[in-house]
C-alpha cells in the first residue's frame, strides 16, 4: 500500500531563556506533501538553525509539534491505532547526520540490523535473517565479512552510514527521511552515498526527504527543492527552476553564498535533463492553513 | 561477557582504579570471613563476649591489639565492626543507587513537568542539612538493626546518586542511537535498559561508591559525638568507646588508631575507584586529575 506523508501547518516552539517571548519558534507553519507514488527526491535546504532537523523529528514522530499535524495516509501520526502505527514506523525511516553517534558504542554494528529484522518481523529464522542482512549489505556495496561482528569505532564514517542505508534497504520504507546524511562524509564517499539513494528511488520506489545545507548535493539529486529559513519555507519548486530563477531574496542569498554554483559542470555524470523533467512533474505541495489553535 | 571484558580493559588502563578495587576486595573478603576470623582469634572462647578476657590488656602475642574495658579482644571487634560498617555502606549504597537511578531515569528520560517536580524535590533534599536531621532521627532509633540503620541513612544519600545520574541520562537521552531505537519500535523501558543503562554503568558505580561512603561516614560522625543508634557495633562505635573510656591514656591505643586507619583506607579506596572511573570515562580529566 502506498501512502502520503503530509505536514499541515506544523509549528514547533521550544522554551528558551533570554528571549523576549520566552520561546523560539523553530518551525513556523510548515506544510508540504511527500507522495510515495511516483517515487521522488525532495530536498529541504536551509542554513544551520533554520529548523530542518526539527522538521525531520516531527515527521519521524520523535517530536510532537506544538501546533499543526503530521499526517500519514491522511491520519495524524500521533493518533494512530496499533496496526497503523506499525505500518507508519516501517514505512517512514530515517538516515541521520552523524554516523558516529548513531551507533551505541556498547554494541556491535550487527545489532541495528538484527533489531530491524526482529522488531519488524522480517523473518523468525536466524539463517534467513542473516541472509537478508548480507543481501542488504551487498546492496549498499559493503562486504558483510568486513563489517559484521565489528564495533562502531572499527568502521569508517562512510561504512557506518552505508550500514544505515542497508537497514533502510531491509525495511523498504516508502519514505526515507535523511537529515544531512552526507555532511560528515568526504566528497567521494558522499557521491557514493547519493548514488545508492538514487538507486533506491529507482529500484525500490522510495521517496526521500533529503535535508541539507549544501546546494551542490541538491543539484546532484535533482527533483524538487524547498528552501527554509527561520522555520518558514520561503520557496519551493523543481531544482532547476529554483536554482536558476530564485524568487525569494533568501534563496538568492543562499545561491550567492556558495562558491561558483555551476550545476552543469559539477558531478554531471548522473544528472540528465530527462531525469530532472520527470521529477518536476511530481509533488506540488499543498499548503492549507493550520487548523489547530496555537497553544 | 562484553561487560566483563570492558571492565577488565578499564581496570588495566587505570592504576588508581586497580589499587582502589584491590583494597576494597581485601576489606570485603575480611568482612565476609569475619565470623571465621573471630572464631580463629578466640579459639574455644568467644572473643566478643563481655569479660571474655581480662580488661585493658595491652597488645601482645595473645591479643594483638589488646582488650577493651569489658575484656573483649579488640582485633576481633575491629574485624566484625569492619564487616558491620561495610554492610551498612552496602545497604545504604544499594538503596540510594536504586532509588537514585529510578528517579534519575524517570526525571531525565521523561522530561517535562515530571522532571521539574522530581528535580525540585531532589534539589530540596540536597540542600537540607541532613546531619541535624540524622541526629534527630537517631534519637528515636535506640535499638535498631543494622538494616534499619542502613535504610535510615540512605534516605539522605539517594539524592546525590540521583543528581549525578540524571545529568548523564539527559546527555544520553538525546543521542541519535536513542532516536534510532525509537524508530525501530523499542519501548521506553527497553531503551532505558538496553541503550542507556550499559553506558551509565560507570556512573552508577560512582553513585554507589559515593553514597556508600557517605553512609559509612555519616554513621561514624553520629557515633563519635555519641549520638549513634544503639544496637550495632561498627567502626565508629569502637572509636566512640575509645574516646569515651580514655583508652589512649590506658595504653590501649589500637582501639582508637586501628578503626581510624581502616576508615581512612576505605575512604581512599572508594575515592580512588571514583576518580579512576571518572578519568577513564571522561578523558578530559586524564593527566589533569592525577599522574
Ligand atoms: N530540543 C530543543 N530544545 C530547544 N530548542 C531546540 C531544540 N531542538 C532545536 N532547537 C532550536 O530550534 C532551532 C532549529 O534547530 P534545528 O536543529 O532544527 O536546526 P537545523 O536547521 O537542523 O540546523 P543544523 O543545520 O545546524 O542542523 C535552533 O534554534 C535550535 O536551537
Ligand atoms: Mg540539523
Automatic annotation (TrEMBL), chain A:
Matching Pfam families: ABC_tran (PF00005), oligo_HPY (PF08352)
Record GO terms (molecular function): ATP binding; ATP hydrolysis activity
GO biological-process terms attached to the record: peptide transport
Keyword Nucleotide-binding: yes
Annotated ranges, domain ABC transporter: 5-255
Keywords assigned: ATP-binding, Nucleotide-binding, Transport
Source species, domain of life: Bacteria
PANTHER family to which the protein is assigned, alphabetical: ABC-TYPE DIPEPTIDE/OLIGOPEPTIDE TRANSPORT SYSTEM, ATPASE COMPONENT, ABC-TYPE DIPEPTIDE_OLIGOPEPTIDE TRANSPORT SYSTEM, ATPASE COMPONENT
Protein name per UniProt: ABC transporter ATP-binding protein
UniProtKB/TrEMBL annotation, chain B:
UniProt keyword list: Membrane, Transmembrane, Transmembrane helix, Transport
Lineage: superkingdom: Bacteria
Spans traversing the lipid bilayer: 17-38, 74-105, 117-140, 146-165, 200-222, 256-277
A Gene Ontology BP annotation from the UniProt entry: transmembrane transport
Domain ABC transmembrane type-1, first and last residues per copy: 82-274
Keyword Transmembrane: yes
Bilayer topology term: Multi-pass membrane protein
GO cellular component: plasma membrane
Compartments reported by the entry: Cell membrane; Membrane
Family note: Belongs to the binding-protein-dependent transport system permease family.
Descriptive protein name: ABC transporter permease
Organism in which the protein naturally occurs: Kribbella sandramycini
